Amino acid sequence: MSSLVARRRHPAAIAVVLLLGLILTGGLYAAFAPKNADAASGDTQAVAAGHNLFLANCATCHGLEAAGGDGGPSLVGVGAAAVDFQVGTGRMPLANPAVQARQGKVQFSSEEISQLAAYVASLGVGPGIPPSSLTSGGGDIAKGGELFRVNCAMCHNFAGSGGALTRGKFAPSLMDVSGRHMYEAMLTGPQSMPVFNNSNLSPQDKKDIISFLQNVKTEPSPGGWSLGNLGPVPEGLFAWTFGIGVLILIAIWLGKKAA
């Protein structure tokens, strides 16, 4: 009996159990670990083409291996969504260093942007490009408005018209931004914007916010001329300027009449 127990407790058995445990753990992690939602990241041809585009257009700042370089941050782990937003809105490639990258003319085709996104996505796990079902509207507008006012209005203005920040930075207007790029901005936090991951705002919350902003774009102004929805400062300035101008004209007319 004692010899049987000794055979069952052979040291090699412990090593085998540990090895099986490691294999099982690795298999489970590979199966259930978060993966990039961008299907293009698995396309080796797209990754290779994106790598060539990166070397020709981005490596000067971000380094040959995208690990950061002369003024450009590392792109490892930023995901396809960050590339699609930055390149798809014309903010990158950055022509001149500035306090903040501005939206500009898009320099690449949709296919080239997808290839660049696939290459960067292959460098590390990061947010993928969202599906159109989350970015094309159709959400709860009322809830989206509430979420926007709580999380976004302090920078982007109550109607998404943008606003000034500190040190020469600004929150851009959202009136000419697509739903896809809005969603990607919430996922990746470009410039001074914080990251709103799925723990902060669920995918449905983001969809509701996008739906609210898309409704604001088409909603008529019940108060008349909105003056860009920039708030009371430009409205007050207009009222003072226009009002004083009218008073000056009336004073001139009365003076001429009295003469």
Automatic annotation (TrEMBL):
Post-translationally, this protein is described as follows, namely: Binds 2 heme c groups covalently per subunit.
The organism of origin for this protein = Flexivirga caeni
Spell out where the chain crosses the membrane: 237-255
Residues reported to bind heme c 2? C152, C155, H156
Q: Which GO terms describe its cellular component?
A: plasma membrane
**Pfam families in UniProt:** Cytochrome_CBB3
Under InterPro entries, the record lists:
bc1_cytC-su, Cyt_c-like_dom, Cyt_c-like_dom_sf, Cytochrome_c_Oxidase_Subunit
PROSITE patterns named in the record: CYTC
Q: Start and end of every Cytochrome c domain?
A: 45-124, 139-217
* EC number(s) stated in the UniProt entry for this protein: 7.1.1.8
- Record membrane topology: Multi-pass membrane protein
What's the source species' lineage?
A: Bacteria, Bacillati, Actinomycetota, Actinomycetes, Micrococcales
Quaternary structure per UniProt? The cytochrome bc1 complex is composed of a cytochrome b (QcrB), the Rieske iron-sulfur protein (QcrA) and a diheme cytochrome c (QcrC) subunit.
Q: Which reaction does it catalyse?
A: a quinol + 2 Fe(III)-[cytochrome c](out) = a quinone + 2 Fe(II)-[cytochrome c](out) + 2 H(+)(out)
What name does this protein carry?
A: Cytochrome bc1 complex cytochrome c subunit
- Where would you find this protein in the cell? Cell membrane
Gene3D superfamilies cross-referenced by the UniProt entry: Cytochrome c-like domain
| Positions of heme c 1 binding | C58, C61, H62
> Does the record carry Transferase as a key word?
no
Q: Name one GO molecular function term.
A: heme binding
Q: What is its main location?
A: membrane
Enzyme class, broadest EC rank? translocase
Keywords from UniProt, A to Z, are: Cell membrane, Electron transport, Heme, Iron, Lyase, Membrane, Metal-binding, Repeat, Respiratory chain, Translocase, Transmembrane, Transmembrane helix, Transport
